[in-house]
Automatic annotation (TrEMBL):
Residues 122-142 are annotated as: Disordered. NCBIfam families: YvyF. It comes from the Bacteria. This is Flagellar operon protein.
């Protein structure tokens, strides 16, 4: 059986018994109230074209929190043509993940190159240096 642990709330820092969220009860209630405001606003047909900035301004919910709702799948960004949040690297508006496809591909190729270079360096470093070995072997024989 899993026992609850004391944790600090990610938002306010207060101690709470962690069970299912990273937030204390007060912060959790605040997040849920914000979600209900945002959800009610975008469910209205007239507001389906709203951008992240417009949605934030109309509901008094921070853009970061709305982006978290989209990123967590609580709001399906694909249903709203203008609703998205900026890529963490370049700022391009995206509807899921943290990076746009371009930045993801760029980082993936850089990581792949780095891993290949490190693997090659490890392989070169592990090979016995035969020339030095033979030199010392010949010198010791004399």
């Amino acid at each position: 059986m899993h026992s609850n642990q004391l944790e600090n709330c990610v938002l306010c820092g207060r101690l709470y018994l962690k069970s299912y969220t990273d937030f204390c009860l007060d912060c959790y209630k605040e997040i849920e109230a914000d979600f209900k405001k945002v959800d009610a606003f975008i469910k209205d047909e007239a507001n389906r074209e709203a951008t992240l900035e417009e949605l934030s301004e109309a509901t008094d919910v921070s853009e970061k929190r709305i982006a978290d709702f989209i990123r967590d799948g609580r709001i399906y960004g694909e249903d709203f043509p203008n609703l998205g949040y900026p890529c963490a690297h370049c700022g391009t508006v995206i509807k899921r993940q943290v990076l746009c496809n371009s930045c993801y591909e760029q980082f993936s190729s850089e990581i792949s190159r780095t891993l290949k270079r490190d693997k090659l360096a490890d392989e070169i470093g592990r090979q016995p240096q035969q020339r030095a070995g033979k030199y010392w072997q010949v010198k010791q024989d004399k």
